[in-house]
């Protein structure tokens, strides 16, 4: 059966298949622990044939990473309908789906990139390739959020809030992966609340940000993520003495 | 004069001097752009003599990084006196001092570590050394915060809030360095407020975290960082309709 499949595949199809197989393996274990032999075996082809399509593990890793980055960026897109809190909440669900599917690979990547076999000449290029890919996904997330807010030229404080919140979301996902000690749905909602809270902190000192906050809260139903949060926060705040 | 200094220095003293000179150069420009020749010249010694003390630029970079990490971790220590918000605010001032002093080097390091000359065999070890150093500083920050909160066995949600806030502080500093478009004092205060806000979000859904929040707010004067924030947030919250 393997031979049958092999005969039929063209170059691009075979490359796509290998990338898919590699991405699955790189997602499930730290990329350092995945060998070309394993990838060959999972793809049902010989080791030399893998090298025919990819010069080495690094180039296959980069291709797999590129596919994962495109996949993640795609998950950020969300129709511009309904309250902003609910939209962000849906995207958070898809973000955690991605993190869940690619857990060990995501951790290895975000905790400083894959260790590369000592002396491998392309180590540096890989480090800059992975950094560029991570940055492109962050940029996609940033632009999506601005589009949903309807803001094309963000003031510096808004850029700071959005970009630093993206870092917060990454950190939250990484910490969650390390033991999964907090239920995922709670964190998906918490990150939506965090976004509102960080915006509110910035808004407390800046008229432009207060405007962004009003826009964020404008269509919120009282029982939506933000309305809910404000009620709970108000209840927690100490009474003036 | 240089010769006079050179004659008097012992091995350890010379190493310390070279680390100091290198740290200053690595802080002011991306480490990739700093050459051993420059370090030698700034230290007033010959290039071969630098190699006598350090086998290469990487080992000197690692030593400089270690010194910077120790320096940063030292700045987290703050007497256990007075309201928590004011203590955190003082530490934020010292954190931004550090970021300010080491700007370009800090950016290069946090944005994926220094690029290493292609083919240099110790590239991998350096990547794991820098990751380990960064992690040790994050751990020091984490432990300091828990000590100030008086909590030795943090629940998972508190660990998440503290560690993800540390990531937020790093991201905020990096974004600030890129153009310095927001006044530093504002960000020092904003991060204190962010800490309270993230704790409050988590507290809204968890009794244990509500307890941490109460502890955080217990000794706060009404005009302290947290009291001030709560007042402003309450004013921003939309009135129930």
Automatic annotation (TrEMBL), chains A, B:
InterPro entries reported for this sequence: DesT_TetR_C (IPR054129), DNA-bd_HTH_TetR-type_CS (IPR023772), Homeodomain-like_sf (IPR009057), HTH-type_TetR-like_transc_reg (IPR050109), HTH_TetR (IPR001647)
Xref: PROSITE patterns: HTH_TETR_1, HTH_TETR_2
Every HTH tetR-type domain range: 12-72
MF (Gene Ontology): DNA-binding transcription factor activity; transcription cis-regulatory region binding
Known DNA-binding region: 35-54
Key words, A-Z: DNA-binding, Transcription, Transcription regulation
Domain of life of the native organism: Bacteria
Family matches, as PANTHER family: HTH-TYPE TRANSCRIPTIONAL REGULATOR RUTR, TRANSCRIPTIONAL REGULATORY PROTEIN (PROBABLY TETR-FAMILY)-RELATED
Name of the featured protein: TetR/AcrR family transcriptional regulator
């Amino acid at each position: 059966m393997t031979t049958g499949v092999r005969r039929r595949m063209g170059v691009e199809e075979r490359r796509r298949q290998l990338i898919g197989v590699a991405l699955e393996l790189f997602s499930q274990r730290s990329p350092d622990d995945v060998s070309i032999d394993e990838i060959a075996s999972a793809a049902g082809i010989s080791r030399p044939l893998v090298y025919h399509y990819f010069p080495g593990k690094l180039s296959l890793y980069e291709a797999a990473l590129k596919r994962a980055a495109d996949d993640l960026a795609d998950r950020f897109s969300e129709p511009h309908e309904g309250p902003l809190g609910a939209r962000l909440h849906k995207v958070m669900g898809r973000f955690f789906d991605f993190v869940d599917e690619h857990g060990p690979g995501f951790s290895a990547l975000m905790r400083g990139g894959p260790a590369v076999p000592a002396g491998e000449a392309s180590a540096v290029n890989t480090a800059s390739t992975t950094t560029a890919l991570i940055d492109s996904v962050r940029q996609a997330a940033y632009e999506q959020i601005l589009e949903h807010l309807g803001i094309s030229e963000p003031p510096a404080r808004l850029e700071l809030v959005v970009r630093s919140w993206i870092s917060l979301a990454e950190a939250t996902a990484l910490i969650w992966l390390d033991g999964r000690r907090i239920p995922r749905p709670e964190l998906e909602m918490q990150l939506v609340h965090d976004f509102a809270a960080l915006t509110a902190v910035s808004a407390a000192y800046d008229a432009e940000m207060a405007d962004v906050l009003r826009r964020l809260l404008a269509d919120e139903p009282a029982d939506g993520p933000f309305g809910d949060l404000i009620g709970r926060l108000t209840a927690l705040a100490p009474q003036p003495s």
